[in-house]
Amino acid sequence: MEATVKWLDGAMFVGEAGSGHAVVMDGPEDLGGRNQGPRPMEMLLLGTGGCSIYDVLAMLKKSRQAVSDCRVELSAERADAVPAVFTRISLHFVVTGRGLKESHVRRAVELSAEKYCSASIMLGAGGVAISHSFEIVEEDAGGGEA
Question: What is the annotated signal peptide range for this record (predicted)?
């Protein structure tokens, strides 16, 4: 895997992944940025959520669960001192669908946390306290939440 991050100006950078996709990262105005993109640490948090939700959805689809929507809500705390590393990350999955089996959702979240999500497992091995939780929202026959 390869990537390049190029400084644009102030506290703004553009990152380009080996796949050719690019993203702008920027800092707050009080630190020389223009606040036109996520901060690098926000990107790390978003990447962790993306890695984990990908796993959970893949496993739920494989187990033929009727998922109509899924999101992972992330919250994180950082150290007060430099380096301001993550000290705690919480991932809360909200899975919506019809007739979803709690055991399947629980197992998908557990497997992502323990075996498949490289990002959260790497951060956890580095000392970040990571927690996972989930809730199931039943969709009614009309396609909305019951």
Answer: none
